[in-house]
Records
---
Amino acid sequence: MNSESGEAIFSTRPAPYAAADAISRGRRYAEPSPTYRSEFQRDRDRIIHAAAFRRLEYKTQVFVNHEGDLFRTRLTHSIEVAQIARSIARALQLNEDLTEAIALAHDLGHTPFGHAGQDALNACMKEYGGFEHNLQSLRVVDELEEKYADFPGLNLTFETREGILKHCSGKNALELGELGERFLKKQQPSLEAQLTNLADEIAYNSHDVDDGLRAELIHIDQLNEIALFHQQYQEVKQRYPDLSQRRTIHEVVRRLINCQAVDLVQASNQQLKQFCPADLESVRRQPQPLITFSDSMRKLNHELKRFLRNHLYRHYRVHRMSAKAMRVIRDLFDAFFNDPRLMPEEAQQRVAELTDQTGTMGQARAVADYIAGMTDRYAIKEHARVYNPEKLT
Ligand code: MG
C-alpha cells in the first residue's frame, strides 16, 4: 500500500510485537503442526472450507440479497476486510496470516438480514442469555461447524479466536475461560486483532457509501457535505473533470479506503514507536489499543458514520426491509421454540441435546443457532413453509 506521496514502508520481517506460531497459545485440542503451512494459514484455510463461510454469500448487512447482484454481501465484505487488513498488516510488519484468518471469520456468526436480524434474535433470546453476533461467530468456529474427525468445531488457534471476539460483557467473559480473561483484566488483544477491527470499519463505511449511492438512497450532494467524502471528491473532480459519474464514484470510494488505511498505518506506527512494546505480551498489557487512526481521521470518520446512520441505515426503504426482516425472525423463533417438531430433524436433535443439558435455556439456544445459521433467502422460505398454508412442505 502506498501513501499518495509515493512513500512506501515495506519490510517482510515480522516486528517483535507481531503474533507468531512459536508464541501461539495453541489450540483447544492439541494437533501436530501443519507441514507446509503456518498455524494461522491453517486457521484461514479451515475458515474458508466452513459451511458458515459459504453461507455469507447469501447474507446481507444493509441491503437484502435479492435487491440486486451488485450489492455487497457478507462474503464480499469479509473478503474486502481481509484485503484491507492484510495490506495494513504487511505495512506494520504484523502477522498477515493471522490477520487474514480473523478478517475472514469475523462475521461468521451473523444472522440473516444484518443488524435487524441480530436485534430481533437478541430480543427473542432476552430471557435465555441474549444473542450477540460476536459470541455467535465464536460458537460457529468452536462448536457448530461439525467437520473434523478429531474435534468439534474448527479447533482454531487462541489468537484467531481472540480476534473474532471483539467485545464481550463481563458476565459472558466469566464463562469463556482463557478467552474471556482479557475483558476481565482489561487487557488488549493482539495488534492483528486490533487492526482487523478497524479494517472492518474502513470497509463497511466505504462500501456503504458505494452501495447507498447505487441504490439511490443517498446522493452525491448530501455526501459532499461530509468532509471526508468532499476532500476526495474535490480532488478527483479537479484531476479528472470529464470522468463519468460511475467512474468518479469508484475513484472516490477507492481513495476513501486508501486515505483511511494510510492514516491508520501512520498513526499506528507513531504509537508503536512511542510505546515500543517489546513483544505480544507487552501489547496485551497496554492500557489502550496501539492500532488507531489519527485524531483528525477519527473525527472525519465519525462524521461519515453519523451521516450513514441517519441517511442510509434509517432511510425508510431500509427501515421497511428491516421491519419485515425482524418479523420473519420473531415468527420463526416463536414457531420453533413453541414446537421444535416444526424444525428439520437435525435441528430437532440439537434442540434435544441442548435441552438435556440446560433445559429451556438450551432449547432456546438451539433454536437461535438454527435461525442464525440461515441465509436471508432460506429464512424467507422457511417462514413461508411454516406460516403460509399454500406451501405444503
Ligand atoms: Mg464486518
---
Amino acid sequence: MRILVLGGDGYLGWPTALYLSRRGHDVGVVDNFARRQYDHEMGVDSLVPISSMQRRVRTWNEVSGLTVDAFVGDLTDPVFVQDVLRRFEPEAVVHFAEQRSAPYSMIDRQHAVYTQVNNVVGTLNLLYAIADFDPSIHLVKLGTMGEYGTPNIDIEEGFIEVAHKGRTDLLPYPKQPGSFYHLSKVHDSHNIMFACRIWGLRATDLNQGIVYGQETDETAQHPDLATRFDYDGVFGTVLNRFCVQAVVGHPLTVYGSGGQTRGMLDIRDTLACVELAATNPPGVGEYRVFNQFTESFSVQQLAEMVVDAFPGSATIDHVEPPRVEKQDHYYRAAHTKLLDLGLVPHLLQAATLRSMLAVVDRFRDRVDAEAILPTVDWRRTQSTLPTAGTSVVA
Ligand code: NAD
Ligand code: USQ
C-alpha cells in the first residue's frame, strides 16, 4: 500500500514508517519538527540521540535499499496538507502528528490553546483534504485510551449500547478525559466520526494506551535510525521514566498512591497494530474505534516491576500528585478488535524491562536529573517549565 505517516519524525511515527517500509509498503513521512522545538523550549533532550529527519531517511534508504519519501510542513497549513496528498497519492494516512503530552497542555493557557489548535485544526484540515482529493483514502488516526477516563463501568471499544426509557441505541462511549491534551483527542474523534457520516470517509480511531520501549528491529540497524526516548517530567511517559530513574539512582516517582491503572503496550505492538488497521480498512462511510493496548497495570505495579527487574537497588517514592485524577478506581477495558485481526502481543516481562534498562544504561550520562521531577500542576493555571526556557507557543 501507499501509506503516508504524519508525525513521521516522532517517537512512534519514525519506527512505524520504517516497519511499514520493510514490510513492503511505499511510505512517506511528514513532520514540522514541533517535537524537536518543545525540547528546545524546555531545555531537555531525548535520552537516546536522534539524527535529523533528512539524515534518518537517507540512512534508511541506503541501509534497506528501499525508498521512504520525506515532506516537511505543518498540518495546520491547509495548502500544505492538500499538496502533500496530491504529491504522494496515499491509500492510507496514518496520523500521529499532534502535541501529545498531557502535562505540556496543562502548563498554562497558551499551551492549552496551542495543543487544541494544533491537534484539532490539523485533523480538520486533513479531513477536508481527504474529502476533496480522494474520499477513499483510509484515515488511521492515533487517539488515546485517555479519551474514556476511568468510569466505574467496563470500557467498550468506542461505542456502548444504551437503553433509555424503553428504547436502545448504539452510541459513542461517554468521554471523561483528564487533560486539555486528552480533550483534543475527544474533539478529533467527534470531527472524524462526523466527516465519515457526511462525506462517506472511512476512518479507524486507534485509542492507544501508554507505549513503552525504544528499540525495534528496524531502528536497531544503525544509530542514525534510533527513535527518541523521553524521560523528563513533561514528555516522559511512566514506564520509560521509571526505567531511567532506576538507572540513575533516582527514587521512582509514583504520583500519590499509585492506584492509577492504564492500558499499556510495547512499542513493537504499536507498529503491528497500525499495519493491521491499515491493511484491513473499514467500509465506505465507516468510523470504527479499536482500543490499542495489550495489558493494564497500576502505576504502583509498574514501579514494583521495575524495582524487581533492576539488577541494582531501586526505591519508590510516593510524590505529591501533580495531576487531578482518580488514584484508586475500577478499570476494565475491552481490547479484542486488534487481536481478532491477528495481533500477537509482546507482553511486559522482566526480559522486556531488562532490555529497556540496558538501553538507558548506554546513555545514562545524558540524563539531566533536574528534568525528572514533575513541574506542571493541574490545579494551577500557570506552571513553570522544568528549566524555565522561553516559550515557543504564542
Ligand atoms: P511525538 O511528539 O514524539 O511525535 C509526534 C510528531 O508529530 C512529532 O514529530 C511532531 O513534530 C509532529 N507534529 C506535531 N504537530 C504537527 C503538525 N501540526 N504538523 C506536522 N507535524 C506535527 O509523539 P508520539 O509519542 O510519537 O505519539 C504519536 C501519536 O500517538 C500522538 O498523536 C499521540 O497522541 C499518540 N499516542 C502516543 C502514546 C505514547 O505513549 N507515546 C500513547 C497513546 C497515543
Ligand atoms: N505517573 C506517575 N509517575 C510518573 C509519571 C506518570 O505516577 O512519573 C502517572 C500519571 O499520573 C498517570 C499515569 O502515570 O496516572 C500515566 O502517565 P503518563 O505520563 O505515562 O501518560 P499520559 O499522561 O496518560 O499520556 C501518555 C502519552 C499520551 C497518550 C497517553 C495514553 O503521553 O500521548 O495519549 O499516554 S493513555 O494514558 O491511555 O491516555
